[in-house]
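Lab notebook page, bench 4
Experiment: in silico fold of construct C2
Operator: M.H.
Input chain length: 137 residues
Purpose: comparison with the prior construct
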Amino acid sequence: MKAVFPKPDNPPTDEAFAATIGKDHRTITGAMDQLRKDHKTIAHTYKFSKTSGWYLCYDKGRQRLCYLFPKRSDFLLKIVFNDKGVANLRSAEVGIAVKEKIATAKKYSEGTLLEFTAAEITTEVLGELLRIKIASI
């Protein structure tokens, strides 16, 4: 994946980040706006990686919720779930596609990584995934 914002000394603005992703940015903002109704401390920060360039981290206090990597007219969303979160996902109404991802997901010491492009996730499903993530910590 080629970095959209590759210069370490030039972080994007929220507007530039949203414009790069395009209309699908609403999937993220819609889910976060819904989540903020119950969790006021949700915030985002920009981080830089030599391989990915600038990307966003969404957090609830000190708890990392997800990573959002911009692509032109798309995004890559990454969420890591602990064992309790994965168990909760298996019994939740998150759709067949998410459950199929769980079966083939990469597992790390931090947990199980689920990745989604804009075409693979809706605001409603993302909101449910994040609620499960918050409840499993």
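Observations: Helices lie at 14-21, 25-36, 83-90, 96-104, 123-135. Strands lie at 42-49, 53-60, 63-71, 74-81, 106-108, 111-117.
Next step: discuss at group meeting.
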